[in-house]
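Running co-folding for heme C.
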Amino acid sequence: MPLKFRTLACVLLCMCLSACFEPIKDTHPDQVLTKRRALFKQFTRALEPMGLVASGRNAYKPDEFLAMVQDLEKLSGKPWIYFPADGNYPPTHAKPAVWSQPEAFKRAQDTYQASVHALLLAAQVGKLESVQRAMDGVTNSCKACHKDFRYE
Ligand code: HEC
Protein backbone atom coordinates (compact mmCIF):
# COMPACT_ATOMS: atom_id res chain seq x y z
CA MET A 1 0.00 0.00 0.00
CA PRO A 2 1.37 3.47 -0.82
CA LEU A 3 2.21 5.45 2.26
CA LYS A 4 -0.46 8.09 1.63
CA PHE A 5 -3.08 5.41 1.44
CA ARG A 6 -1.99 3.80 4.65
CA THR A 7 -2.14 7.15 6.47
CA LEU A 8 -5.63 7.74 5.17
CA ALA A 9 -6.79 4.27 6.20
CA CYS A 10 -5.33 4.84 9.63
CA VAL A 11 -7.02 8.20 10.05
CA LEU A 12 -10.37 6.72 9.02
CA LEU A 13 -9.96 3.80 11.42
CA CYS A 14 -9.09 6.13 14.27
CA MET A 15 -12.13 8.30 13.56
CA CYS A 16 -14.34 5.24 13.55
CA LEU A 17 -12.86 3.89 16.78
CA SER A 18 -13.22 7.15 18.65
CA ALA A 19 -16.84 7.38 17.49
CA CYS A 20 -17.48 3.85 18.77
CA PHE A 21 -15.87 4.42 22.13
CA GLU A 22 -17.59 7.70 22.76
CA PRO A 23 -21.26 6.85 23.25
CA ILE A 24 -22.19 10.26 24.67
CA LYS A 25 -21.57 13.35 22.59
CA ASP A 26 -21.76 15.97 25.27
CA THR A 27 -22.28 19.37 23.69
CA HIS A 28 -22.38 21.39 26.94
CA PRO A 29 -19.26 23.47 27.68
CA ASP A 30 -19.17 22.09 31.26
CA GLN A 31 -20.13 18.54 30.23
CA VAL A 32 -22.86 18.48 32.88
CA LEU A 33 -24.63 15.46 31.38
CA THR A 34 -21.47 13.36 31.44
CA LYS A 35 -20.73 14.47 34.99
CA ARG A 36 -24.16 13.76 36.45
CA ARG A 37 -24.36 10.39 34.70
CA ALA A 38 -20.97 9.39 36.06
CA LEU A 39 -22.20 10.24 39.56
CA PHE A 40 -25.41 8.25 39.14
CA LYS A 41 -23.33 5.27 38.02
CA GLN A 42 -21.34 5.68 41.23
CA PHE A 43 -24.62 5.64 43.17
CA THR A 44 -25.40 2.25 41.65
CA ARG A 45 -21.90 0.93 42.22
CA ALA A 46 -22.03 2.03 45.87
CA LEU A 47 -25.49 0.59 46.43
CA GLU A 48 -25.01 -2.84 44.88
CA PRO A 49 -22.83 -4.45 47.58
CA MET A 50 -25.17 -3.04 50.24
CA GLY A 51 -28.12 -4.60 48.44
CA LEU A 52 -26.43 -7.99 48.59
CA VAL A 53 -26.11 -7.63 52.37
CA ALA A 54 -29.68 -6.39 52.82
CA SER A 55 -31.06 -9.32 50.82
CA GLY A 56 -29.10 -11.78 52.94
CA ARG A 57 -26.85 -12.98 50.11
CA ASN A 58 -23.75 -11.54 51.74
CA ALA A 59 -22.95 -11.56 55.44
CA TYR A 60 -23.67 -8.41 57.44
CA LYS A 61 -20.40 -6.99 58.74
CA PRO A 62 -21.41 -3.80 60.54
CA ASP A 63 -18.07 -1.95 60.18
CA GLU A 64 -17.74 -2.68 56.49
CA PHE A 65 -21.36 -1.81 55.89
CA LEU A 66 -21.04 1.48 57.73
CA ALA A 67 -18.05 2.43 55.55
CA MET A 68 -20.13 1.71 52.43
CA VAL A 69 -22.97 3.91 53.66
CA GLN A 70 -20.52 6.70 54.42
CA ASP A 71 -19.29 6.51 50.83
CA LEU A 72 -22.85 6.68 49.52
CA GLU A 73 -23.62 9.62 51.77
CA LYS A 74 -20.64 11.54 50.41
CA LEU A 75 -21.99 11.02 46.88
CA SER A 76 -25.62 11.68 47.60
CA GLY A 77 -25.56 15.48 47.32
CA LYS A 78 -23.32 15.65 44.28
CA PRO A 79 -25.32 15.17 41.05
CA TRP A 80 -27.80 18.00 41.58
CA ILE A 81 -25.60 20.95 40.61
CA TYR A 82 -25.19 19.26 37.22
CA PHE A 83 -28.80 20.02 36.30
CA PRO A 84 -28.37 23.74 35.46
CA ALA A 85 -30.98 25.75 33.55
CA ASP A 86 -29.26 24.98 30.24
CA GLY A 87 -28.67 21.32 31.14
CA ASN A 88 -31.56 19.75 29.22
CA TYR A 89 -30.09 18.45 25.96
CA PRO A 90 -29.84 15.13 24.15
CA PRO A 91 -29.16 12.36 24.89
CA THR A 92 -30.41 13.08 28.41
CA HIS A 93 -32.94 10.71 29.97
CA ALA A 94 -34.12 13.38 32.38
CA LYS A 95 -37.76 14.41 31.97
CA PRO A 96 -38.58 18.07 31.29
CA ALA A 97 -40.15 18.11 34.80
CA VAL A 98 -36.62 18.44 36.23
CA TRP A 99 -36.59 21.96 34.81
CA SER A 100 -40.31 22.80 34.82
CA GLN A 101 -40.91 21.65 38.43
CA PRO A 102 -37.70 22.57 40.21
CA GLU A 103 -39.32 22.56 43.66
CA ALA A 104 -40.64 19.03 43.26
CA PHE A 105 -37.25 17.92 41.93
CA LYS A 106 -35.57 19.51 44.96
CA ARG A 107 -38.04 17.71 47.27
CA ALA A 108 -37.13 14.38 45.64
CA GLN A 109 -33.45 15.13 46.29
CA ASP A 110 -34.17 16.01 49.91
CA THR A 111 -36.24 12.85 50.44
CA TYR A 112 -33.41 10.80 48.96
CA GLN A 113 -30.73 12.46 51.07
CA ALA A 114 -32.86 12.04 54.20
CA SER A 115 -33.22 8.33 53.41
CA VAL A 116 -29.45 7.96 53.08
CA HIS A 117 -29.03 9.77 56.39
CA ALA A 118 -31.53 7.42 58.04
CA LEU A 119 -29.52 4.49 56.64
CA LEU A 120 -26.38 6.00 58.12
CA LEU A 121 -28.00 6.21 61.56
CA ALA A 122 -29.22 2.60 61.30
CA ALA A 123 -25.77 1.44 60.20
CA GLN A 124 -24.20 3.22 63.18
CA VAL A 125 -26.51 1.30 65.54
CA GLY A 126 -25.73 -1.86 63.58
CA LYS A 127 -28.93 -3.94 63.75
CA LEU A 128 -29.48 -5.79 60.49
CA GLU A 129 -33.26 -5.53 60.59
CA SER A 130 -33.33 -1.75 60.81
CA VAL A 131 -30.53 -1.54 58.25
CA GLN A 132 -32.70 -3.58 55.86
CA ARG A 133 -35.68 -1.31 56.43
CA ALA A 134 -33.54 1.78 55.86
CA MET A 135 -32.15 0.23 52.67
CA ASP A 136 -35.72 -0.09 51.38
CA GLY A 137 -36.14 3.61 52.11
CA VAL A 138 -33.09 4.45 49.99
CA THR A 139 -34.00 2.26 46.99
CA ASN A 140 -37.59 3.52 47.11
CA SER A 141 -36.44 7.12 46.96
CA CYS A 142 -34.17 6.39 43.97
CA LYS A 143 -37.15 4.80 42.24
CA ALA A 144 -39.59 7.54 43.21
CA CYS A 145 -37.38 10.21 41.69
CA HIS A 146 -36.80 8.17 38.54
CA LYS A 147 -40.53 7.63 38.13
CA ASP A 148 -41.22 11.36 38.12
CA PHE A 149 -38.03 12.75 36.61
CA ARG A 150 -36.35 10.16 34.38
CA TYR A 151 -37.41 8.28 31.24
CA GLU A 152 -36.72 4.56 31.60
C1 HEC B 1 -33.84 13.46 42.86
C2 HEC B 1 -33.89 12.57 41.73
C3 HEC B 1 -33.03 11.35 41.64
C4 HEC B 1 -32.63 10.51 42.64
C5 HEC B 1 -32.92 10.60 44.13
C6 HEC B 1 -31.84 9.47 42.03
N1 HEC B 1 -31.77 9.65 40.68
FE1 HEC B 1 -30.86 8.46 39.35
N2 HEC B 1 -31.29 9.76 37.86
C7 HEC B 1 -32.07 10.88 37.98
C8 HEC B 1 -32.19 11.55 36.70
C9 HEC B 1 -32.99 12.82 36.41
C10 HEC B 1 -31.45 10.78 35.78
C11 HEC B 1 -31.25 11.05 34.28
C12 HEC B 1 -29.93 11.79 34.05
C13 HEC B 1 -29.75 12.18 32.59
O1 HEC B 1 -29.78 11.29 31.71
O2 HEC B 1 -29.63 13.39 32.33
C14 HEC B 1 -30.89 9.66 36.56
C15 HEC B 1 -30.09 8.67 36.01
C16 HEC B 1 -29.63 7.58 36.71
C17 HEC B 1 -28.84 6.51 36.13
C18 HEC B 1 -28.42 6.40 34.67
C19 HEC B 1 -27.05 7.01 34.45
C20 HEC B 1 -26.64 6.95 32.99
O3 HEC B 1 -25.48 6.60 32.73
O4 HEC B 1 -27.45 7.28 32.12
C21 HEC B 1 -28.58 5.60 37.14
C22 HEC B 1 -27.79 4.29 37.02
C23 HEC B 1 -29.19 6.11 38.34
N3 HEC B 1 -29.82 7.32 38.04
C24 HEC B 1 -29.14 5.48 39.56
C25 HEC B 1 -29.65 6.01 40.73
C26 HEC B 1 -29.58 5.36 42.03
C27 HEC B 1 -28.96 3.99 42.28
C28 HEC B 1 -30.18 6.19 42.91
C29 HEC B 1 -30.34 6.02 44.39
C30 HEC B 1 -29.21 5.51 45.14
C31 HEC B 1 -30.63 7.36 42.17
N4 HEC B 1 -30.29 7.22 40.86
C32 HEC B 1 -31.27 8.43 42.74
C33 HEC B 1 -32.66 11.34 39.13
C34 HEC B 1 -32.49 10.79 40.39
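Result summary
Residues 30-149 form a domain with the Four Helix Bundle (Hemerythrin (Met), subunit A) fold (CATH 1.20.120.10).
The mean pLDDT is 91.
Job closed.
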